[in-house]
Design goal:
The complex is a heterotrimer of chains A (293), B (777) and C (156). By secondary structure, chain A is α+β, with helices and mostly antiparallel strands. Chain A has eleven helices and 14 strands. In chain A, β6 and β7 form a beta hairpin. Chain B has a seven-stranded mixed beta sheet with strand order 3-4-1-11-8-9-10, with helices on both faces. Chain B is an alpha+beta fold and 777 residues long. In chain B, α6 packs across α7, α13 runs parallel beside α14 and α15 crosses α17. The chains are: A alpha+beta (293), B alpha+beta (777), C alpha+beta (156). Chains A and B meet through α11 of A and α3 and α18 of B.
């Protein structure tokens, strides 16, 4: 029999209770939501906390709002809930797309949007897409409530800006009024069941034939998910063309992203793919914004 | 009168009900009273000498029963073909080489104890590249190689090198051939190690009795080989060792040799006669156990203007890893099939097994034929292209056929290669559908192959007639999922004339089953099929003899059908098999004969070894198998991703005893081959440590990576005269063609050649850039 | 710390003493001796340990046993009813989807959950539904066939 993965598990039913336990246990506690990343880390001994705080009983499983007013998604909402949400399918399909390709069906059943973010992987699907949507993270902790922009939430691989005993409770996606386009390109080796070699998410709010608001977020090409500012500058306020999308891809690949060789791909290949993925994400987002999708 | 026949029918897997209900017992499912758990203590370095080992902290762990190291055992060498291993080593030769083991009441305690063993090493320089190891004089991984015992023909070593085997084939005059050739093509091939990918990891349970008997239950493809290895490694006579194989959750060659069983049995000696279980985690399995061998190979082929191959020279450096295990045999056999299934007058082959400080390479579905096919079949397309020949016609022109001699001088008695080529060509149709998307290029490629089996591995099967007339077959074939239990039951049912539901096939227990080497070399249908036929005939002869006495009808007028012995001339006169199951009783109560057992053996009586200097031999393989495949791919020229959209396969099986199971082998091999072609590679860093020992970074195909269409055709045009009902084999050939066919399809689509597996998107993009730098935006 | 855990397994109410910090897979196998659920990877990549938990097919290696409390769990052992194989089990046999058999329980549980959600999946939906289960033997063709046979059987 494999050893238990921790000494004690707590199952708070309110956020306050969870914060109290986390405060009491300090560094020696880890939060579990879906568990699809955490349990692997526990089993591999990457982390060895004595205490686990299971937050599944917290009332944080909800999808609320609308595109016109913004969305509020509870932190323990699963990828399955998101992938089958009629509201999101209609109003924010990019998030549904991120959910569907997050992993195998068994993982999608359990994995939560909050967990995907708090795992702080630079490859994470939700994180990548949410970064392009100017997402705000709602946090509760012993010192009260606070908010952070998702793009500022990460400090490095596996490291977040959460302070001791803080819990992410909600993901807020600001309103996206009017016509818009959003697209997520996840480049993998296998067709499914794979971690992104490069991820690119783009959000465009057009201004007639010009690119109004634009966000490009990149995954797997840096220590954290990042916003491609150079790509944004190239696109913002310009009359859209496929050549412009191509320039944005080039800028993202050459200036925004940083690369390392790892077991999944070389830095050189990631760079090539970043250019293509950003270009495709931008083209698809524009096409959607213009009613193509 | 119609009699149900089973051979040739799609009989469902005789053990399938247990499989689909979760009732099948695999080794890790065994729990025995008083059972302990053992874990290995493994080397952290690729090459080192252990200077000091401190167990004091480890022994303090609560629940620890025993910790053993190399110090506790006599240095008994063992191995599959070369006795180059010891159970626990003082001189670790790869990262993960077992130095000792710990056993405890719980797995947790055993793991903790193992982690607290303090080892001081003297780290030695290591070598990971087989070509460097081939030349090295400084780093010799097995300095005592010349003292090892090994099997003749498989252990042809050079003292003071890292080369435990060298196979030579010398046929005709290869230099003269090249001089006469109008075109010569040369290529270099590199292939990384890959995993077998059995979903069930290695697991076993070992137990000693106070009287010195050892029982091992294990997920093994070769209980008899395992018993032999245990006997050598532990120093116990075979009659004191019982090996029983559990259900095997995937083998593919990775469960052929004894490995964890040797170590678990060693520590079980110190465990108070309690059962000791060892189960590898996925990580441990992939960091430390087995891979398919890496290969660096060189090919040179000379062709005449009229499209005849007239000379081929091959040099193959097979990376055995730290121990020879099966690699000496792979180097031998892959060597002698490496010229391909073609009629070539001048052949020169050097095939070397080479030690490196990597984890051990072992047998893997195909024994090197997927790798060599990957090379020579790409060369075939290059040549065809050069001469403007159709790749299919060019292959047909050079293909071997029945009656011809192959590279080692063996005359082929069954060879349907040309039928296979014509069939796949016909089924695939003429036209390739063009993709609508500009960035996606479509291509088609063909590959053909041949594969030897073995000849020196006799099998014995035992058939028992039970008192109620049912039959128990004590097979010596291990069914690892390929379906040999079903196939043997089909064969036996037809031989005996009894319903298949009356036959039970029981797994090997080395105490009472007949000898059977192991499930390897696509040999089971042929070898065990034959010995099962003979065992069935032996039993049938006995029951007809007894039946004749009971029925008072001469044996010549008797036959069997539907579990009955009946008169040919008067079919109404019959008795059930059960009437003679214990022999014949007379009216006074006297008895003639006795319980009926049939016994059958099969050997290749006219087999022959290869000449060590020329590689020539009359019959080194009981039969040869052939196959052809066409693959169609779509390549994304922007990302380099390849998608296989279609496989059409034809396999020369002689006779499909169970066509659906044959197709199951072809389909399974095709997708395993697809994985090796596109995704799979064991990544080993400079220190010799595996970097991707998990199932997300080592990527096996999912259902999402399969082609939309898979056509798999068993070809039965050339039944083998010695095969059971004409059957040969299929398991390994199924995996030989995909990588080569995919590479040829990619070349067709893009005009670039990639001679290294896997064909990653990165290699595709690099090749495209080299081809036309200007086109790259 | 071990404690009593109460849940329904394969239609029967069970109470057992187990560590809530152990994985459900380990508890099923080592505490409840339900050995039909297999471990292939321990990282949620192969699907061999798939069970149905509160109606969802999940990898039991990535679920802690505290989530068994009051849950309704189905494992491969619970599929046979009155000595009859479940239609998916029958379909696996007919399609020849059993080679080594090790992945079968996980596949069958995943397919059961999939068909409960979507009784007549398209080819693409079958693919999407089964990408979380690895089979090394069959090349997936027979498994796809089995799904189609099961769909027909269940429709009857």
């Amino acid at each position: 029999m494999v050893a238990p993965l921790a000494k004690e598990i707590f199952e708070p039913e309110t956020v306050e209770e969870a914060i109290n336990i986390l405060h009491r246990k300090g560094e020696d506690a880890a939060i579990i939501a879906g568990g699809t990343d955490l349990i692997i880390s526990l089993r591999e001994g990457v982390i060895q906390p004595a205490n686990i705080v299971d937050i599944i009983k917290l009332p944080l499983n909800y999808i609320k709002g609308s595109r016109a007013k913004g969305f509020q998604i509870g932190a323990t909402t699963t990828a399955k809930d998101i992938s089958t949400s009629g509201l999101l399918k209609k109003e924010l399909p990019i998030l549904v797309d991120a959910a569907i390709h997050l992993g195998g069906p068994q993982t999608i059943e359990l994995a939560t949007i909050g967990g995907n973010i708090c795992n702080a992987s630079p490859c994470a699907n939700f994180t990548n897409v949410l970064a392009a949507l100017d997402t705000v993270i709602k946090i509760k902790g012993p010192d009260g409530d606070r908010e952070m922009m998702l793009k500022d939430f990460f400090r490095g691989p596996g490291i977040t800006g959460l302070k001791r005993a803080e819990v992410v409770t909600e993901i807020e996606i600001p309103a996206i009024p009017g016509a818009y386009g959003a697209s997520y390109v996840k480049h993998t080796l296998r067709k499914e069941m794979d971690i992104a070699i490069v991820g690119a998410a783009a959000l465009i709010i057009p201004d007639a034939n010009k690119v109004g608001k634009i966000r490009v977020a990149l995954g797997s090409v840096g220590a954290t998910v990042l916003l491609a500012e150079n790509a944004r500058k190239i696109l913002e306020g310009k009359t859209f063309s496929s050549r412009l999308a191509e320039s944005a891809g080039k800028a993202a690949a050459e200036k925004d992203a940083s690369y390392i060789d790892d077991v999944r791909a070389s830095a050189a290949y990631r760079k090539k793919i970043t250019r293509i993925a950003v270009k495709k994400a931008v083209l698809d987002a524009w096409s959607m914004a213009k009613g193509g999708k | 009168m119609s009699v149900k026949k089973y051979v040739g029918e799609n009989i469902t897997d005789v053990r399938s009900v247990n499989k689909v209900t979760g009732a099948t017992q695999y080794a890790a499912d065994i729990n025995l009273p008083g059972m302990l758990y053992a874990v290995m203590i493994r080397s952290e370095y690729a090459h080192a000498v252990v200077k000091d080992i401190d167990l004091s902290e480890a022994l303090k762990v609560e629940g620890v029963v025993a910790i053993v190291t190399y110090k506790d055992f006599p240095e008994l060498h063992f191995g599959t073909y070369v006795h180059d291993q010891v159970a626990f080593t003082e001189h670790p030769k790869y990262v993960g080489d077992p130095i000792g083991a710990a056993a405890a009441e719980t797995e947790e305690a055993a793991e903790k104890a193992a982690s607290l063993v303090r080892i001081k090493y003297e780290v030695l320089p290591h070598i990971l590249n087989p070509e460097e190891a081939f030349k090295s004089k400084e780093i010799i991984i097995h300095p005592n190689m010349h003292t090892y015992k090994g099997y003749a023909g498989f252990f042809n070593f050079k003292k003071g090198t890292n080369i435990p085997n060298h196979l030579k084939v010398r046929k005709g005059d290869v230099e003269k051939g090249f001089a006469e050739a109008d075109y010569v093509v040369e290529s270099r091939i590199t292939i990384p190690p890959i995993y077998h990918g059995n979903i069930e990891t290695h697991a076993c349970v070992c137990k000693y009795d106070p009287d010195g008997r050892l029982t091992v239950q294990s997920t093994t493809q070769g209980p008899f080989l395992l018993r032999e290895m245990l006997s050598t490694a532990i120093g116990l006579p075979m009659n004191r060792i019982t090996v029983v194989h559990t259900a095997v959750g995937g083998g593919f060659g990775g469960k052929i040799s004894g490995n964890i069983e040797i170590r678990a049995a060693a520590i079980a000696q110190k465990c108070e006669y309690r059962p000791v279980k060892m189960v590898l985690s996925r990580r441990e399995e992939w960091e430390t156990v087995y891979t398919r061998q890496a290969l660096v190979g060189y090919y040179k082929t000379g062709v005449s203007k009229d499209g005849k191959i007239i000379a081929r020279k091959v040099t193959l450096y097979w990376d055995a890893g730290a121990y020879a295990d099966y690699e000496v045999s792979v180097a031998r056999s892959a060597g002698y099939m490496s010229a391909g299934p073609y009629d070539i007058p001048n052949i020169w082959i050097d095939s070397y097994a080479i030690y490196t400080n990597k984890l051990v390479a072992t047998a893997y579905r195909g024994f090197g034929c997927s790798e060599t096919t990957f090379c020579y079949e790409q060369d075939m397309d290059i040549i065809a292209d050069k001469f403007g020949l159709d790749p299919v016609k060019f292959r047909l022109k050079n293909a071997l056929e029945r009656g011809m001699e192959n590279a080692t001088g063996q005359r082929l008695r069954s060879c349907a290669l040309k039928d296979c080529i014509n069939l796949v060509n016909e089924k695939a149709g003429r036209e390739t559908k063009k993709s609508e998307n500009d960035g996606i290029k479509r291509g088609r490629g063909i590959a053909v192959m041949h594969k030897f089996t073995v000849h020196t591995v006799p099998t014995a099967d035992i058939v028992k007639l039970n008192e109620d007339g049912t039959i128990t077959l004590e097979t010596s074939a291990v069914d690892i999922g390929q379906g040999s239990n079903t196939v043997m039951a089909q064969i036996l049912a037809d031989v005996l004339g009894i319903g298949i539901d009356k036959i039970t096939v029981v797994p090997i227990n080395t105490d009472y089953s007949g000898y059977g080497w192991q499930t390897a070399a696509s040999s089971k249908t042929f070898f065990n099929g034959n010995s099962t036929i003979r065992a069935g005939l032996d039993l049938r002869r006995k029951i007809l003899h007894y039946g004749s006495m009971v029925l008072h009808i001469p044996e010549s007028d008797l036959a069997t059908r539907d579990g009955k012995i009946y008169s040919l001339s008067d079919p109404d006169k019959s008795i059930p098999f059960s009437a003679v199951s214990l022999g014949v009783f007379n009216e006074e109560g006297g008895q003639y004969g006795g319980p009926v057992i049939g016994y059958g053996v099969f050997t290749v009586e006219d087999g022959s070894f290869l000449d060590t200097e020329t590689g020539q031999g009359r019959k080194p393989s009981a039969f040869w198998m052939f196959a052809a495949m066409i693959a169609e791919v779509e390549v994304n020229t922007e990302t380099g991703n390849i998608r296989v959209v279609r496989f059409v396969s034809a396999n020369d099986v002689g006779k499909a005893i169970n066509p659906k199971m044959v197709q199951g082998q072809i389909n399974g091999g095709a997708i395993q081959g697809l994985g090796s072609a596109l995704f799979e590679e064991v990544l080993i860093n400079r220190e010799g440590k595996v970097m991707n020992a998990n199932m997300h970074d080592y990527k096996m195909p999912t259902i999402g990576d399969c082609p939309d269409e898979m056509i798999s055709i068993p070809v039965e045009t050339q039944p083998h005269p010695d095969g059971p009902f004409g059957a040969k084999g299929v398991g390994e050939p199924a995996m030989a063609c995909p990588a080569a066919a995919i590479a040829n399809a990619v070349a067709d689509a893009l005009g670039v050649r990639i001679y290294s597996m896997p064909l990653t998107p990165e290699k595709i993009l690099d090749a495209l850039e080299k081809k036309s730098p200007k086109e790259v935006r | 710390m071990k404690r009593d855990i109460k849940c329904t397994i394969n239609g029967r109410q069970r109470t057992f003493y187990a560590d809530p910090c152990a994985s459900v897979l380990d508890v099923l196998r080592d505490v409840l001796h339900l050995m039909g659920t297999k471990e292939g990877c321990g990282t949620g990549d192969c699907g061999a340990c798939t069970i149905i938990w509160n109606g969802k097919a999940v990898n039991s290696c990535l679920l802690l046993a505290n989530r068994m409390e009051n849950a309704e769990i189905w494992t491969i052992e619970g599929l046979m009813k009155d000595g009859e194989l479940h239609p998916i089990q029958q379909a696996f046999i007919e399609a020849g989807a059993t080679q080594c058999g090790f992945c079968n329980p996980g596949f069958i549980m995943r397919i059961k959950a999939m068909l409960e959600e979507n009784p007549d999946p398209t080819d693409e939906e079958i693919t999407q539904g089964l990408v979380g289960n690895i089979c090394r033997c069959t090349g997936y063709k027979a498994i796809r066939d089995a799904v189609k046979i099961a769909v027909k059987k269940q429709r009857r």
